[in-house]
Write a structure and sequence with these properties.
alpha+beta
């Protein structure tokens, strides 16, 4: 029994020495532990005497008690052995953790992709790892080790929905900032957007921010008034509003000749019969009827011959025939004035003139220039009609058109 106790004691001391060595204790402590262990191993008599004294102090021990004590010693020995193994494993793990916590080991782990220490408790992120730690911590449970609460990513809020007036107001603000580069079309769009945005004018004209010519400004104002009339009268007044805007815009339109044809007969506005060909035989006089449609003409109010017809249209027409080869004037018809008085402003206007091309024209290509002048404001417009003079009747149908 004494020998068993001594062995246990020696074994325990040896284990203590091993633990101290593995945990990196100071060398002097290791030396002391070694001395104690050596004393226990080399002097078993002292150990036995101490054990004997302890037994004798308790009185006599029967054989059964001694047998039970021996069994207890075996159990104690097994328990000590298990404790030694557990302590050795713990010490080895502690040594491993100490080695892992060194800077060189950390650098080694950080340089290895996907390497993760299974038992480390360090909260320092590895080099090269992603910095989006909040989501990763929630997924892996790392916040439980570090003690920090998971960070929730804010949910993006949808932008407020813009109403039509609000959107129009933003467009108005943008266009007014770029007013220096806006043209007439942009000005009309800006005026419409201001109405949609319900921006009060406060006596200020929204077109003031634009650099418009006088004619462009008047056109933009006419369109703005058209929108106001449509808003006031509704669908039923759209035609009247458009007609009123048309009359206003006519003052800004320039004179135009929408048609000019050589005809065999004319019955009225837009009702005429053009000649079959514009090629004529040389050496013969060529009679024809010239039909000209005029648009965007002015009315001279109060100039009519009677008070019942106060609206007058007055135009002047000139005809000139040029030879294409040399650009020389081959024939001309003196200027002729036409006047027409009416009770109401006219929408359609045409001029019919009978002409006779001279027989002296030589073979070649010509162009007949029609020049119309509005006597109300001096505006002019012109059209050109190509004509061919041929030397043989068989070539009439093959002349250039």
């Amino acid at each position: 029994m004494s020998a068993s106790r001594a062995s246990v004691r020696a074994l325990g001391l040896s284990t203590a020495a091993s633990i101290m060595l593995l945990s990196g204790c100071a060398s002097n402590q290791a030396d002391e532990t070694t001395n104690v262990t050596d004393a226990a191993l080399t002097d078993p008599d002292d150990t036995r005497s101490e054990a004997t004294d302890a037994v004798e102090g308790d009185g006599e021990v029967s054989a059964d008690a001694e047998s039970a004590s021996s069994t207890d010693d075996d159990a104690i020995t097994q328990a000590m052995l298990q404790s030694m193994r557990a302590i050795d494993e713990a010490a080895q793990k502690g040594l491993i953790e100490e080695m892992r916590s060194t800077p060189s080991a950390q650098r080694l782990r950080s340089s290895t992709p996907g390497a993760v220490a299974s038992n480390t408790t360090s909260t320092e992120p590895a080099i090269g790892a992603e910095t989006t730690a909040p989501d990763a911590a929630v997924a892996t449970g790392s916040h439980e080790r570090t003690g920090s609460a998971p960070t929730e990513r804010p949910v993006p809020q949808a932008p407020p929905e813009l109403t039509t007036p609000a959107l129009a107001a933003k467009l108005v603000e943008r266009m007014e900032r770029e007013s220096a580069s806006l043209n007439l079309e942009d000005a009309m769009t800006l005026a419409a957007l201001r109405d949609i945005a319900q921006i009060p004018r406060d006596g200020a004209d929204p077109l003031d921010v634009l650099d418009l010519a006088p004619s462009e400004r008047r056109a933009a104002e006419a369109v703005a008034r058209l929108r106001e009339r449509v808003a006031d009268s509704g669908v039923s007044g759209v035609a009247e509003a458009i007609e009123a805007a048309h009359r206003e815009l006519l003052d800004e339109a320039t004179l135009d000749l929408t048609a000019a044809e050589l005809c065999t007969s004319v019955e009225g506005f837009g009702r005429y019969s053009p000649i079959a060909t514009r090629s004529f035989l040389a050496g013969q006089s060529q009679p024809a009827i010239l039909y000209v449609e005029v648009d965007h003409f002015r009315h001279q109010t109060g100039e009519g011959e009677s008070a019942t017809e106060p609206y007058r249209v007055a135009l002047r027409q000139e005809l000139m025939l040029y030879h294409d080869a040399d650009g020389l004037l081959a024939w001309r018809k003196p200027a002729q004035d036409t006047r027409y008085d009416a009770r109401r402003p006219l929408r359609d206007y045409y001029v019919v003139t009978r002409i006779d091309l001279p027989a002296s024209l030589t073979v070649g290509r010509y162009h007949l220039k029609v020049v119309m002048t509005d006597l109300a404001d001096g505006a002019t417009a012109e059209r050109v009609i190509p004509i061919d003079i041929v030397g043989d009747r068989s070539a009439i149908g093959y002349a250039r058109q």
